[in-house]
## 1
Amino acid sequence: MRTTFLGAHATPPEFAGRTDDYIDEVLRMLPLLHAEGLVDAVDAFCERIGFSTAQTERVFAAAQALQLPVKLHAEQLSDSGGAQLAARHGALSCDHLEWLSAEGAQAMAAAGTVAVLLPGAFYFLRETRLPPVAMLREHQVPIAISTDSNPGSSPCTSLLLMLNMACTLFRLTPEEALAGVTRHAAAALGLRDRGVLAVGMRADFVSWGVQRPAELSYALGANPRIQTVFKGQII
């Protein structure tokens, strides 16, 4: 379980028309929450209906003053340069990315920032602009897949369904989708000690009753799990 502080996601009604004042409030919240051990990373929604790049910079600066890694909701509705901003701050990941530019992809690749694609939100919001998967491949940006589970735009908790959607909607290969919920997902959370089966890595994995990765992303509603191993123990 990792906890990300996304205070700068939307402006509350009581701060309507005063987004800078709300960012001031977010910056007051952050050190208090961090002191209680509640924050593993800091995120923001950099978008025309969210917060500007200047406001996001303020949030990132405050996070990094506390030595907290950052993440970003970026380029979901427009190309605001959020990917480049996130990359400058060494962000763990950028989410959504439907409007990502080549410059943004290059910046993410150089910074090692993971692209987190959200097929559930794409489906539920009836989006029509696909994330630029070919561009991400070209620039060798690691691609993670997430449910983006939330009541507003992606009320889904099934990673297996996301595997299917990533392949059918975004045209990822089954192998890319599987990497997206294992090693690249671990990197997006800043967890470098897991995500692959290798000597010396933490033994968190699932055993599946399948012959090849394509079977995991094929059947809708199926769950061929045999067992789960967490910290080396069968649970």
## 2
Amino acid sequence: MARTRYSSSQGKRPPADLTQIGSVAVTDLISPAPIVIDRYRAFVFPNRVREQRQHLGCSKLMQLSNALPSIPYIRLSKIERGEVVARADELRQIARTLAIAPVDLLSDLSEPGFDIAAWAEPFQDKRPVPIDEERMAVLLAASLRVMRYADARLTIAALDRDYDLPPVILSRLENAYKTLDRWNGGTLDSLCRLFGVVDAAALRDEVEQRYRRGELDAFVNKIADPNMRMARSRDVTTSLRHELSRGTDRQTEADPARPAAARSEPHQSQSAATAAAVSSPQAAESAPAALPVFGVPIAGGLIGFERTSAMIDAPAQAGPRAFALRVCRATLGPGLPASAVVVADPDRPTAPGGLVAIRTAQGFRLATITFDRMGATKGYTTQPAMEIDIDDIDPVDVIAITAAVYP
């Protein structure tokens, strides 16, 4: 894949504002932007979830997670650790379980006494990280961002497909959440292929040279400046306070992905409601034994919702509204071939790293889902290469895939 490269031998470098097109002639004696290392750059959402959980007698996060079946444990852990921004509906669910007000889960970052070092201390790796490794992580992150700005073909989907850099890994790399010496061999090999170098030592040298030529100036401080990180954190916290005060969520308080039986009592705790739904004889009787298979291929990688003559055995945990969908085309790659059949279940919650069927006016689209660093839910397809903002879609149209049947 051809990529735009900037060479000091040409006497050029990209402008500080990469929204402009073209290069500005300079000498090789450029003083690159200084790097201020922010050791708390991974914490984008300082909050009081851990403090409130422990204060209210819930000593282990797993205890809270068990009472919140609609928020996966990994997601809940990242929220508590401040690694992703919680949505307002998630804060309401957590607060309802802890019997407190949702705003009590938010930290006041504008308080003179707020200390990010003290807040982050329980979540930090106790192993000291050399400042040179921290610096290299920032330079690598800036280099990746410059490459993606310079070449429109380096989309998130393309980096996943062509270089084996999944969205979650790419996000951690582009935000310098992990130093280069701590990535595994597979990720290092992918980075070397992307940068066109032979090994990790050459990768370090390449990134360093890009910095010295001034090519990374536009991004270095956006990644490493603690003042910019705190400003972003304050902005998102203020926005959440405003959203919670208005009572407007992207999702309804009653999670539409959960079974109707679990939503029937608005004052019932989530854990009790879920247990009641699971133990309900009526719910057990309504579980299907077999599922009809729907699905015909239509344009754009979509699946038309037309019934076929096929039937498959229903998975043991299938809800009463589950249905089977023929894949039709390998839109997610060879791991899910066109001949496969997936089980879509509106009564099961979606989870990051899983698959979903997205209902559109034309038909269904299969996608993998994950969260970005700001807490937004993203869906990805390979053929065609697409990035989908899941949070902008009505939750009832995003259906969990719980099983796959191969021919």
## 3
Amino acid sequence: MKNEKNKKTIGSSPSGSLPTGEGGGRGLSAVLLLLSIPLFLLLNLAVGSVAIPLDAVFSILMGGDCDNEVWTNIVLHTRLPQALTAIACGSGLAVAGLMLQTVFHNPLAGPSVLGISSAASLGVAFLVLMSGSIGWHIVSSFGFFGNTALTLSAVIGALSAMALIVFLSQRVHGNVTLLIVGVMIGYIASAIIGVLKYFSSEEDVRAYVVWGLGSFARVTGGQVWVFFGLVLAVLPFGMLLAKSLNMLLLGEQYATNLGLNISRARTQIIIVAGMLTAIVTAYCGPIMFLGLAVPHICRGIFRTADHRILLPGTLLCGASLALVCNLIARLPGMEGALPVNSVTSLIGAPIALWILLKRKK
């Protein structure tokens, strides 16, 4: 009976089509989410410590003449890269979080649950915290070469952890066991980072802490297009897994009866979610709570468990919410910017508490 109930939740009619009322409401929600992205994008370009009129922003984006060169530099070289980074980061982490919550049947699972973010942090820690002993002071200064080195080290750390997780996923049958393995990887990485901090100089520890706060402003110049392109290249593979995710939502026994290869589907989901997490962490640092909170917000908006709807909806919702967080982090009247993780935690932590209280009730 439980499987039949879940089956009706995923497909509201035998043909898989949605009732007119529900389909119309979800379509309207999707349109509003889609329209919110360019709206918040424009606000990100116009609002900040330096207020720029919207007509000037449009002129700069269209390549028109703008009398104020300072405005042109701020929009094209600072705020636009930040906004594009926020869109890619929010959409990537949100989709990864949705996929991991489904595969582990855990509403509190997020992109960091497999220890991939911690492994990326470990890769950066080896580079930054040991730079003082080998003379790589350029890393601590976070110049162009420093950012490139940080990105490569984070990618190496994240992909190493993901390779281990994928290897174990083929030999471990229980999702709970695999989840525990991911948590243990995170603890081991955190322990090694703690040891490196103890033996490192104050300057290197400060540089690592700055990286760990997370930022959309770290991706500059041509790197933003590389980052944006990498996320866009991986996201379609997640969309193609909607059918497998719907089957897994019904339970492994039901999915097996429908002909799904559980081990292969789980490996594919982990690879896609892991790649998205690794890319975002490498370029932006560990961004908290977006991957946890956005899937639940999206489920509340669309009121469905069908991943054919949730995956694109989560992508749009994640991009929009990340733009809002970036906008809050650069509130008008502030000379600097708040750490992005402070803003995302203020949004994501109450949602996590609400989930716990709802489940207890």
## 4
Amino acid sequence: MINRELIRIKTVQLTYAYYQNGNKNIDTAEKELFFSLSKAYDLYNLLLALMVAVAKEAKRRLEIAEARARREGGDKPSTRFAYNRFTLQLEENHQLNDFISNQKHTWADEPEIVGKLFEQIEQSQIYKDYMADPVDNYATDRELWRKLYRTLIQENGDLDALLEEQSLYWNDDKEVVDTFVLKTIKRFDEQNGPKQELLPEYDNEEDKDYARKLFRASILNADEYQHYMSEASRNWDFSRLAYMDVIIMQIAIAELMTFPSIPASVTINEFVDIAKLYSTPKSSAYINGMLDAIARHLIRTGRLMKRMEDKQ
């Protein structure tokens, strides 16, 4: 699940923190990087567990409604949402239950936000259309939760505030992690039952190694990379730049120099996108031009064995 986009973002955050920290210890900083990445995986599991918590709340309220119907003689309430096939499968998932069993704090400790989310779901047009849909199968049940997640969980101020209270890391992680939760919903197959595989923390050891090498190269070779910046710009003036801009370009150069298989254009585009999120409004255009100039200069001087398309 932890992909290179997330690793780049975390490397920028932790490199910035490294320079802000007076006690610069690269081994400690590297441990913090991997802890931060592991917290993103925790968030992935926690958001999956939130759907289970909402389904459990639906069952609790269904039992109350059924008891009232028996007592007062009203219509029997529908069980369709409470016993949605997708959330039943998710509730039984072995990997998710292993995660939940190791958590001190679960959604059972947050009844207010779970209850509010359930009520928002009940009031939504997505829910009403689902309850009225004559097609009743697993695919319909799974698609309901994909739509609900995109509409009511992906953009949810109350949930964002709660997650930020629980972990400073999660405020920046959620947007990326949401995409992985949606991918997981789509991947679920009824035939796999409780053994359905969730996304692994890392797709492979290469990504973990990529994180370590990128972080260490960014810091250990900082002087060299900043020299490349100066060579590529005669009018270079650090005092006029946002500090985050320097960090972003330093890490981008680390990726250019350390990973020969990653095209230069990919590296530049990825770090320009990060600049749009983490630096000043004008930074992305400036960083785009600077990184392009730096990469071409390094290729021209034989220090970077990559290719760049000719400018139009």
